[in-house]
Amino acid sequence: MSEQSLPQDAHPEYADAHPEYADALPEYAERVLDVAERIPPGRVMTYGDVAEWLEEGGPRQVGRVMALYGGAVAWWRVVRADGVLLPGHELRALDRYRAEGTPLKEASRAAEGHLPRLDMRRARWDGGDRAEGHT
What we know:
The protein is mostly helical. Helix content is about 40%, strand content about 5%.
């Protein structure tokens, strides 16, 4: 999905039109990153889970925010719903999952690259303390 579907304040050209906000993070992005920071070590949320938690946007908008700004938070804890590791970052993410004890499903020998997937049934976090600090 294109940037056109992002909330108004999430457009990169917004900073160009308003140089006084050039260093400011779009409000929607701040909220997405705040949710990512709340995810406990060893647990994950899907892009759709984050959008649902925020009650705004969708998986693609959350994915776009994570692609643009996610390096500032525990990006490996916001994942695809199928448990496949983030393409291009598989080994870095896998190291972090193993260090945090995130539940994984080992790949079969026939699987491409023999990389495990996240065990979504066990690793998924529902945002249990949602009410605390959520605005």
